[in-house]
Amino acid sequence: MKLKKHLLAIAVTAVALAAPGAAFAQNKVNLGVAIPAATHSFTAGIVWWANEAKKELEKANPDLKVTIKTAANAGEQANQLQDLATANKINALVIFPFESAALTKPVAQVKGKGVYVTVVDRGLTDTSAQDAYVSGDNTAFGKVPAEYIAKTLDGKGNIVALRGIATTLDNERMDAFNGVMKAYPDIKLLDAKYANWNRDDAFKVMQDYLTRFKQIDAVWAADDDMAIGVLKAIEQAKRDDIKIVFGGAGAKGMIKTLIDAKDPRIQANVSYSPKFIYDAIKMTAEARLKGEALPATTIIPSVLITKDNAKEFYFPDSPF
Amino acid sequence: MSIAVRFDGIVKEFGPVRVLHGVSFDLAPGRVYGLLGENGAGKSTLMKILSGYERPTGGTLHIDGEPRSFKSSRDAEAAGIVLIHQEFNLAEDLTITQNIFLGHERKRGWWLDEAAMRADTLRVLRQVGLDKDPDTPVRHLIVAEKQLVEIAKALARNARLLIMDEPTASLTPGETEALFTLMARLQADGVTIVYISHKLDEVERTTDDVIVMRDGRFVTRQPTRELTRHQMATLMVGREISDLYPDKDPAPTGAVPLLRVEGLTVPGWAADIAFDVKPGEILGFAGLVGAGRTELFEGLLGLRPHQVGRIELEGRAIRIRNPRDAVDQGITYLSEDRKGKGLHVGFGLRENLTLMALETYATPWLKPGAETRALKTAVQDFGIRTGSLDVKAASLSGGNQQKLALAKVLHPEPKVVILDEPTRGVDVGAKRDIYFLIQRLAREGRGVVVVSSELMELVGLCHRVAVMRGGRLRAMVDAQHLTEEELISHATGTNQRDQANGDKPSEEESMTAGR
Amino acid sequence: MVDRQLDQPAPPRFQRARSLGSRLHAVGPILGLVLLCVAGTLLNPDFASLDNAMNVLTRTAFIGIIAVGMCFVIISGGIDLSVGSMAALIAGMVILLMNTLAGSIDQPVLVVAIGMAASVVLGGVFGLAHGLLITRGRIEPFIVTLGTLGIFRAYLTYFSNGGAITLDDTLSDVYSPVYYTSVIGVPIPVWVFLIVAVAGALILNRTAYGRYVQAIGSNEQVARYAAVNVDRIKVMTYALLGACVGIATLLYVPRLGSSSPTTGLLWELEAIAAVIVGGTALKGGSGSIIGTVIGAVLLSVISNILNLTSVISVYLNAAVQGFVIIIVAFLQRRK
Ligand SMILES: Nc1ncnc2c1ncn2[C@@H]1O[C@H](COP(=O)(O)OP(=O)(O)OP(=O)(O)O)[C@@H](O)[C@H]1O
Ligand SMILES: [Mg+2]
Hints:
The complex is a heterotrimer.
Chain A: H1 2-18, E1 29-36, H2 41-60, E2 64-71, H3 74-86, E3 92-95, H4 100-112, E4 116-120, E5 132-136, H5 138-152, E6 157-163, H6 168-181, E7 187-194, H7 199-212, E8 218-220, H8 224-237, E9 244-246, H9 252-260, E10 268-270, H10 276-289, E11 297-300, E12 304-306
Parallel strand pairs in A: 1-2, 1-3, 3-4, 4-5, 5-11, 6-7, 6-8, 8-9
Antiparallel strand pairs in A: 10-12
Helix pairs in contact in A: 2-10, 3-4, 5-6, 7-8
Chain B: E1 5-14, E2 17-27, E3 32-37, H1 43-50, E4 58-63, E5 66-68, H2 73-78, E6 81-84, H3 96-100, E7 107-108, E8 111-112, H4 114-128, H5 143-156, E9 161-165, H6 173-188, E10 192-196, H7 200-206, E11 209-214, E12 217-223, H8 229-237, E13 259-266, E14 270-277, E15 282-287, H9 293-300, E16 310-313, E17 316-317, H10 323-329, E18 331-334, H11 338-342, H12 349-354, H13 368-382, H14 398-410, E19 416-420, H15 428-443, E20 447-451, H16 455-461, E21 464-469, E22 472-478, H17 484-492, H18 496-500, H19 507-513
Parallel strand pairs in B: 3-10, 3-11, 6-9, 9-10, 15-20, 15-21, 18-19, 19-20
Antiparallel strand pairs in B: 1-2, 1-4, 4-5, 7-8, 11-12, 13-14, 13-16, 16-17, 21-22
Helix pairs in contact in B: 4-5
Chain C: H1 2-7, H2 12-43, H3 50-75, H4 83-104, H5 108-135, H6 141-159, E1 165-166, H7 169-175, H8 177-180, E2 182-183, E3 186-187, H9 188-206, H10 208-218, H11 220-225, H12 230-256, E4 258-259, H13 267-277, H14 289-308, H15 317-331
Antiparallel strand pairs in C: 1-4, 2-3
Helix pairs in contact in C: 2-14, 2-15, 3-9, 3-10, 3-12, 3-13, 3-14, 4-5, 4-6, 4-12, 5-6, 5-7, 5-12, 9-10, 10-12, 13-14, 14-15
The structure holds adenosine-5'-triphosphate (ATP) and magnesium ion (MG).
């Protein structure tokens, strides 16, 4: 668990910096966790990891109580925040906001009641509404595959990309990808279309790419679900020009394919695990138990996954 | 206040079909005109042109000497011309008040002035003699009440020329009287009235002049008092009309009734009704509007919640849960509400005709050829007048829609047929045809039940007549005693014999309050 | 009388104006489709290739088959919002069933056959449940199917723990030809789509049941009075749609061999749009299966063309679809 150790190191240093000489008395912590409901595999992973954190931490710390709420939309999440603050009387909150803008006010209200707030993944529009921010590394999510593809293709070839849903998160990834590719003028990005992080849509988009482009060397599918659709489309078209299909986020199915070396086109992936909710809960709980604060921003790095380190990213029990 | 109208060579075409062939005549202010003509003669079409619902294809319309062409009914209403439709034009889910002011809402600033509209509605409802809460949704009204709302709606528009297209087709004698009083008052106020009706006695009583149309052409205009009813009929049809009613066959004496019903109760409408129909018998049902006749038969067919003691068909007990069961047993029902329950006005004639007997055309594929042949036969048999066989039912004239509806319920060849107001809106010639048809059905050994508000019709046609009042069967009048007076007295509760039986007219109120 | 009126020489002006108007109404969707195809070919000649045509038709098959069933429901005056979730749940349940059976039956072909049958049966049962709730329960179809929209998807999410339910590899190998094989150059899903559409058109226009469906949608009250067994016909209509969803699903499963909570998202809207773009009125009463088929093809052609070109900003893709739908609706509007 290199990643975990790495994270804890960051956390510990940060804590030490933020609260020098804080008392080590154990505080009672009533921690609320607000996350999206499990509507697709990534959020399902979030829910699973949040529950893992609750199990582990409550067992280890009798003074800690964790309440998890899952919401299907931004409105519901805002209501849950009110309930957590008034009915559950929480004094710390870890929230994965459904939307940045819509939830900024409700979170600020909770913070106004003296609750310690850690925001995960999607930053609020007004950062003063949060105490700490923990996020995945969207820049690396685009940069890592770009570098891998560029290197593997020897700086020369045709690639196509798929995008998720038009959001800032998706833009950050795409920009980072393009940023790297600037350095490789002989690599041609033929097109990048939205496929909504959805297998079926990715299948259709890839089918049409295959109709349109007679020579494709690599596909940046930008998500493991989309990569599945892409592979099916290639299989159907019986095309053998594509050498790399790069997914993203490290879903267990894809990692398994990597470990077993089942598909020559899948040699690498980039981590963006829902496990960061586990880390955020753990960091917040442990810091608050000691009455300490977290650093303002913690970024959980996205790293290249290859056959060599794939085992560290394989969690067969998680739904993701 | 009054308004003068001149039609000058009015032509109207619907696609390739020409229905008005250059109609010219004028209407002097302040008079009451009866407009007569066979079904499909073009009466409604001409009046729709006058009131802005249709645009003429050719010719001009002069109002008070000025040529005018109305772009919409609003335009015409602004000129003081209001039409009461033959087919109702009410929004079922809106209340009476909302319907009366639809498109003409009273406002106070930005808000609707509900109080003023309600008060006005109450006033016009009183004028037409309809005692209903103005906030009642129109959906809950029965046909006659809807007709009164249509009339009230026209009154609220302050018409200078009022066109009534068969307003009494679904009214009772009492309501009809009230309407005539109202017409007299309007005439005294100087309103010009055009009165379209197939009821020649009413035309005779209420109008100053009679205008006759035939086949889309103007035929004649004559002072009413110079014409007899018989002459009116002859002018309309263009040939001599012999007796309206067929000679009655003797009442059948068969022992086993074709249909026997016992203990039929439709909560709120009819209580503990028993009757039977013999093969070859024509059984009438008389009563005032609201007496529960229609509801009784809708209950029998399973269209309303009901309890029934026993139903026997040809001596065997049967169960009717819905109209499908009824048709399977050989019983069909013609609704009085042609537009709402009788015909799919958006469907073609063929689809309407065969709907109740569709299974016979499906083996398993439908045969459009066979359906079209059936339609051709029906058009002949029932004298349905239409420009083409491929039109929608909505484009038939009112009377011809009625004939189509009749053809439809007879199409499955029922053993017992229940006809609710079978001649509503039908011209004299066609009425006669329908009476002879009903007799033919009886002669073929079928049982025919005729529900009608036209007492003459029941007297002229039936072997026996059941009279309902306040949801109960009050009398069963047989052929010897069958007169209009006898029926009215039972229907209104003034019959000596009924009262001797302790049957008080006041019961009526308690029944009607229940609905 | 009839003869006399038919004898009237018709003014030719009228005849022509009328038939042109009604013809435009009928051919609106076809015209739209033809224009789109011309545009597609101009933008990218590959659009007109046989392979691309087959890709598009195969994709259309799922939505198209569902739309044929939806056409009946809409003509009857109803609506079904749950078809997308229903397809996803059926896919999930059928995959679980096949994976389980694979343990006890070692004839993968048999297992797949059972799975395919189960798919249609499940769809029929779900549709039946809708129909009974709507008729016996007297609940508005919008509400019933909005409810099941959530219920179906939630159960799928529950069965899959939020992740994907994936078909066993060996089964997948046996099953995938159902989606990927061609017969006489035409992929199987397209054949099935064709058969369903032809059957649908025959049922709608040439059987008593089809006529009853139209009668109910046109005026339920009149239909009831005309001895049409309204409740039974309605229940049958929802069951028919359910079966269509089942058929679509049995073709869908072999494509990716998995079902996840994002499977079939918004299919209900696509199916309803195909029906309406094809000229059926949302208020019911009348409609056309051919129009529906064209509507479905048209919708997938739009996104296909957008994928085959880069002239339009990807951010505007949805706008282009919106414009085309409105234009086609304009072409086929009723007078
Ligand atoms: N929208 C339409 N399209 C085609 N034909 C129509 C349309 N409206 C009316 N017609 C035809 O015009 C003719 C005249 O109809 P109209 O309704 O004026 O008759 P009418 O004299 O009022 O008959 P009735 O006494 O039955 O009410 C009929 O043959 C009818 O079929
Ligand atoms: Mg008329």
